[in-house]
Amino acid sequence: LASLDAHPQPSVVDVGGVPVGGGQLAMIAGPCAVEEPDRMLRIAKAVKAAGANIFRGGAYKPRTSPYSFQGLGEEGLKILRDVGDACGMPIVTEVTDPRNVETVAKYADLLQIGARNMQNFVLLTEAGQANKPVLLKRGMSATIVDWLMSAEYVLAQGNPNVILCERGIKSFDPSTRNLFDVAAVPVVKGLSHLPVIVDPSHATGKPALIPPCALAGVAAGADGVHIEVHDEPEVAKSDGPQALLPDQYAEVAQQIRQLAALL
Ligand code: PEP
Ligand code: MN
């Protein structure tokens, strides 16, 4: 179902009224984790003014350590929904557990399946049955064919609305958090009609590397860019070291628009 043979035209996925794919860019921005409501509102207003069209934040955080902040749970979903509504932006948030799909789908416009859960087939099946589009991140050790097969699990449930996200894969080199596989974008485009976006935040883990990798992704044909933004990265509850400040986001968002206009 994901293949170009099944569907030769690029798919356009509607995310709460924002079309993604077929030349229309998803500009997803927001903090790694949902935090206090006033901070969320401040960040959302700033990224919206900078050109973001979908607001992100994790309420259920898949942390490497069980002792790290795990997210605000349903309280976080409510905050995210209220902030999205107040700013007129659809919201995306991660669902980590098949038992929470229904709850997350009640609040979110787009369900994110994280890299660590890309092959959680029970979760993919549940997400495929929810009436919401799915943002499927590439697993850190997944081949492109593995990734498309995971998309297939969602599509096979009758949910045609899947957006793929390249977020970097494991490598031997600690110079970047992950290895940004920019070639994955044209490889996927050669195999599938599904929109594919890039996440240079998790791919590189370093603010200075986010703008060049965001632009490389768009130049390679990505249908959008997913970037973590925080107004005080030093106190962020999660992924602070890779967050862009709102002003830095505004600059890269403008560069992305200028580049996209040339393509
Ligand atoms: C995230 O988007 O905050 C996240 C945890 O991403 P990934 O699953 O790509 O690590
Ligand atoms: Mn993160």
From TrEMBL:
Q: What EC identifiers does the entry list?
A: 2.5.1.54
Q: Where is the signal peptide?
A: none
Q: Which GO terms describe its molecular function?
A: 3-deoxy-7-phosphoheptulonate synthase activity; aldehyde-lyase activity
Record bears the keyword Transferase:
yes
Tell me, what is an example of a GO biological process annotation in this record?
Answer: aromatic amino acid family biosynthetic process
List residues of the DAHP synthetase I/KDSA domain. Answer: 19-261
EC top class named in words: transferase
Which keywords appear in this protein's UniProt record, sorted alphabetically?
Transferase
Protein's recorded name: Phospho-2-dehydro-3-deoxyheptonate aldolase
Say which species the protein is native to: Rosistilla carotiformis
Cite the source lineage.
Bacteria, Pseudomonadati, Planctomycetota, Planctomycetia, Pirellulales
What is the primary gene name for this protein? aroF
